[in-house]
Structures are given as C-alpha cells and as structure tokens.
What we know:
This protein is of the alpha/beta class. It folds into two domains: about 5-180 and about 300-385, Zn peptidases (Aminopeptidase, 3-Layer(aba) Sandwich); about 185-295, Alpha-Beta Plaits. Helices cover about 35% and strands about 25% of the residues. The chain has eleven helices and 16 strands. It has helices at about 5-10, 10-25, 30-45, 105-120, 140-145, 150-155, 205-225, 265-285, 305-315, 335-340, 365-380; strands at about 50-55, 60-65, 70-75, 125-135, 155-165, 175, 180, 185-190, 195, 230-240, 245-250, 250-260, 285-295, 300, 320, 340-350. The strands form four sheets. The protein has an eight-stranded mixed β-sheet, with helices on both faces. Strands 10-12-8-13 form a four-stranded antiparallel β-sheet, with helices on one face. A two-stranded antiparallel sheet has the order 7-14. Strand 1 and strand 2 (about 60-65) form a beta hairpin. Helix 2 (about 10-25) runs antiparallel to helix 4 (about 105-120) and helix 4 (about 105-120) packs across helix 11 (about 365-380). The longest helix is centred in the last third of the chain and has 21 residues, at about 265-285. The radius of gyration is 24 Å and the shape is elongated. The mean pLDDT is about 95.
Amino acid sequence: MPIINRIADFSDDMTAWRRHLHAHPELQFDCHETAAFVVDRLRAFGVDEIHEGIATSGIVAIIKGQGEGPTIGLRADMDALPMDEITGLDHASTIPGKMHACGHDGHTTMLLGAARYLAETRNFAGRVALIFQPAEEGGGGADVMVRDGVMDRFDIKEIYALHNAPGRPAGSFHTAPGPIMAAVDTFDIRITGIGGHGAMPHETADPIVAAAGIVNAIQTIVSRNHYAQDELVISVTQIHTGSADNIIPATAYINGTVRTFKSEVQGMVMARLEEIVEGHAKAYRVTGDLDYQVGYPATVNDTGRTAFAADVAREIAADVVDDAGPEMGAEDFAYMLQERPGAYLFVGNGDSAGLHHPGYDFNDEIAAVGASFFARLVERALPAERAA
C-alpha cells in the first residue's frame, strides 16, 4: 500500500491516538473527552482555526493552503456504541457498556493523520475543513451540524468521508456513484387487548395472537407488495409481551426497521403497515397503535466526485472498486451529501469481526491508508499551482 511517506513516519503516533480513543469511548452527543483529545492534537499540529461545541461536542478545524481557493470538507465520526467489549485487548474499552465497535476511533485517527500532514505541508490552494462529528450512531449528528450551519459558515463546496469495511482486504477501497447506503426508518407497534387467565382465553382479547399475525403479515410486504428490483428490507427485531405461563397479557410490543432507497417504496411500506395493524387489530378485537419514525435518508454519492475520489484511491491502493453497488446499512453522512456534492467510500479493514460486534477492533494498519487518501484528495482537488 503506497501510503505517503511522511504519514508513514508518524504511523506509530496514529496507533497510539487510536488506541487511546478506543479505550475511552463516548456515546451520542456526549463526546466531550474525545473532542478535547482531538483539539489538543489539532493545536499541536498548528491548524489555523478550531471551532468547538458544534452539535454539542462537534469540531470544525480549518487548514489554509498556499493561496485562495475553495474549501473541501473532510468528515470523521467520533461516537461509540452502547455495548460491552469482549476482545480482551490491552487497549480495550475501560468503560463498561460502551465500546468503539464500529471503528469511529479509527475514522477520527485517519482524519487527525491527514490534518497533521496537511498542516505541515500545505501543498494546496484553498482551505480544508476538518469535521469531527458526534452522534452518528442514531443521533443524527451530521444533520445537527448541517442545521447548525457548518456548510455555509465555512463555505464548504464539497464533502468526503471514509468508513472501514471488515471482511474486505486491508487497505482496499470500494464505493459507488449514486445511492450507496439506504434510508433507515423505525416502527413501533403497541397492541392493547384484555388480559386474563391462561385457562380461560375466551374471556380475553389476546394481544399475543394479534402480534403473531401482524409479524407474519409484515413479511408479505417485501414478497407481495413491492417490485422485486427495488431494494427493500423490513426486519422485525423486537417482540415483548407476557410475564408468566398461566397469564394472557394485556399488551404486546413489536419493533422493527425499514431500509429503502426510493421515497415511493418508503411510502408504500408506511401505508401497508397502517393497513396491517388496523386490520389485525379489528380481526383480533384489540387496539393497535403504529408509530413510524422516518430516520436517516439514503446516502447518495455525486457521480463526478465519486469517480474523482476513486481515482485518488488508486494512488494509494491497487484494489479499488468504483461500482460496488448500494448497501442496506444507513449513514447520517447522507445529510451532508444532501447539502453539498461529495462521496462516501469504504476502506477494507481486513479479516476482523464485523461492525457492531463485541469482538470487533479497527485495524491500525489501515489508518495511514485513510489519512493518505484524505491528504491526496485535498492536494489533487486544490492543486497548489492555483496559488501562483
């Protein structure tokens, strides 16, 4: 992997930064210690401006090049997940119930590595806006930063981000023009019936039977209500009810997720869920309440910027796929791509546990790869000869 020599020189520092962050995970918008660590590094690198407290604990740092030019945005997420770690590593999480199981510690490290190099060399014309974002894991931190005005305030013209990819060759890249990550919505269904003795079901209105019927009917939305070539995933992920073997409960709860790319598919799912809940509630003599929450939109790459980013990646790695197709996961970087053209790419993490797994760890060997990609992207997008 032909990473930039100067970045290779301080790769041990990057490993130390990443492992410190891994051992001290924070959740959602409460990334204050992580932000303080990032700010300390940025000050030591000599960046030109540091703006703190955006979206509670987010940061935007500015590095100025050799002359006038546009501003390129580079984004990394900082938050961890609410889960326990089982790796047993020396740098494992020191905080029970919190873990960097998605590699955001590595993403932050890659952007810090690029910041150090770019602040030293400044071999570009224009500005770089380094965006360190909290609350990607469900909080929509990118949306909050956008609504806080970061795109206009810092005059960002285009925006890029990386995410690690377990199971892909270490240091490889893959991306795709157009939709690359799905929109994600959540639904909650609360069923209220009449509880009673398990020996006398005729005196009850059983919410368990209704819940079972609703779950089975939901499975037919994908198989019978949508065009097979339109991507759609509906997963029921929680059912909670009951307390004993001789009690028919009065209530039941169903939860799940919907992944789509097209608004018309999303609308169809919403309508069918309403019909299914209403119909089954009537059939089983219970009441059903559906709460459908629209979440992150689809992440849509700009075609031209994606081709450019893939070309930059080929300077760093021999294994680059630029037509990988969409994935059904979701990413709040979508909000930034709605505001500015740009691209979202994956960098292979090698043979590791999967994302959101308690045995996952970011591969420190790829940190310099990601940092080199960010650095070369800036140098190519904002060539220094503009300053002449």
